Amino acid sequence: MPGTGSWWRAGTADLPHGPAGDSRSGRAAPTLEPVPRRGHRYKEPAQPTYLTVRIESLVFGGAGLARAEDGRVVFVSFAAPGELVEALVEREYPDYLQAVVSRVIEPSPDRVEPRCPLFGECGGCQLQHMRYPAQLAAKELVVREQLRRIGRLDDSVVRPIRGAADPWGYRNHLRFSTGKKYGDVGYIGRKGYGLLRAEQCPIADPWVEELLPPLQGHGAGLHQIQVRHSAETGTFLVNPAIPGLDLPTGQKSYVEELGGARFDVSASAFFQVNHAQAEAMIELVGDALPERGELLIDGFAGVGTFAVLFANRFARVLAIEESNSAAKDSERNLAQAPNVEMLVGKVEDVLPQLDERPDAIVLDPPRPGCAPPVLAAILEFQPATVVYVSCNPATLARDLRVLVDGGYRLDQVTPLDMFPQTGHIECVSKLTFAGRREADEVADGESA
């Protein structure tokens, strides 16, 4: 893959942390999200500065995209597409501004009253001011734009977004910050400082939300309080141990149920926080995978979810996971699938060393996406099917471009709303190996 290494380095510096670079010109094209790129300084206006702007669309992260009179891009928090708003500038960067709505001049018909009294101060939700169908439409447009602009891909492969049946009360894993003096429990403000005491949280699993009032006053001396709960199994985890509560605390793990299987999940291991939408994700991945095969590789396997659930379709499954805690959980979870083998290590280190060609690969990387050795190994193995689960449409578009250039056909991309009321977007993509282009093969032969 000529040029992959240098392209990746540019991608990791820009894409996960803020406005993406235009891969064709190398110039900044700040339409990804309002988060500063590494090394870019900002200043706060000395005096309150207000702008009147028209919101063009939402960007990844949930802010509204607008343009100031001088042409600079403005990312406006808590705006809706089409609105004319007065925005207070909070940060100035060399090529864009961050602002927040101070007054809505022409409201969108999709604007609603937020459910949470902390909305606008808390950093957890970005979209409670929009009707849920409008949230879904905006997120689908973000995925389409990222595929076109960053991946230079045809967005006709994007399927309608899979929304949640209930966009409230879904989050079954929360980390609460604590007050040192009085032991208050809540969230850090959206600017990254200041504790907001929380007596309720509309996106939290009802069991978790009901725990908030009893937790108040018990946070002194603790850095954070982690609460995880499974309505399906009735198990929960409250960590660390907290004396004085009317329920057991200090658990090291709990049990989740997904796709008809049960999974031990330790306190530090990753597991999807929205059970209903996680079931929808399993359905999408299952539809994309072949019904039968010899070898499946589950990259970024976590506690072994995909490996266990689809083990019955393949003679063997190799699961790769870097996290020690998740790998330890998988030892117990894989007992229900004896044809699965867990390989502990980074996917970029383990995958290129394998000497067996898989029939299919499932990728579920963290936000920065796949490192170049992962993509290079896939192009070397040429599995018939690649299923890519992503939580970042920007790095997804970047990686899909590499795979398509290497001979894969992008069959479909399905956005999935795993986190309603927020700017986050999940996607499940399917690629099928269609063969290297003849010109590429000739070029490789000449270079050899």
Number of domains: 3
The first-level CATH class of the largest domain is given as Alpha Beta
What would you call the structural class? alpha+beta
**CATH architecture classification of the largest domain:** 3-Layer(aba) Sandwich
* CATH structural fold name of the largest domain: Rossmann fold
Strand share of the residues?
A: 25-35%
Mind telling me the C-alpha Rg?
A: 23 Å
- Order of adjacent strands in the largest pleated sheet: 18-17-16-19-20-22-21
Q: What is the residue-averaged pLDDT? A: 89
The biggest beta sheet is recorded as: 7 strands, mixed
Helix share, percent: 10-25%
Secondary structure elements and pairings:
Elements (H helix, E strand, L loop, with lengths): L3 H11 L5 E2 L6 E2 L20 E5 L2 E2 L5 E4 L5 E5 L6 E9 L3 E11 L25 H18 L23 E6 L6 E4 L6 E3 L8 H10 L8 E6 L6 E4 L13 E6 L2 E6 L8 H14 L4 E7 L5 H5 L4 E8 L2 H10 L6 E5 L2 H4 L9 E4 L8 H10 L3 E6 L2 H13 L2 E9 L9 E8 L4 H10 L1
Parallel strand pairs: 6-8, 16-17, 16-19, 17-18, 19-20
Antiparallel strand pairs: 1-2, 3-7, 4-5, 5-6, 7-8, 9-10, 9-12, 10-11, 12-13, 14-15, 20-22, 21-22
Summary tags:
alpha+beta; OB fold (Dihydrolipoamide Acetyltransferase, E2P); six-stranded mixed beta sheet; disordered N terminus; single chain; 3 domains; Rossmann fold; seven-stranded mixed beta sheet; 448 residues; 23% helix; 10 helices
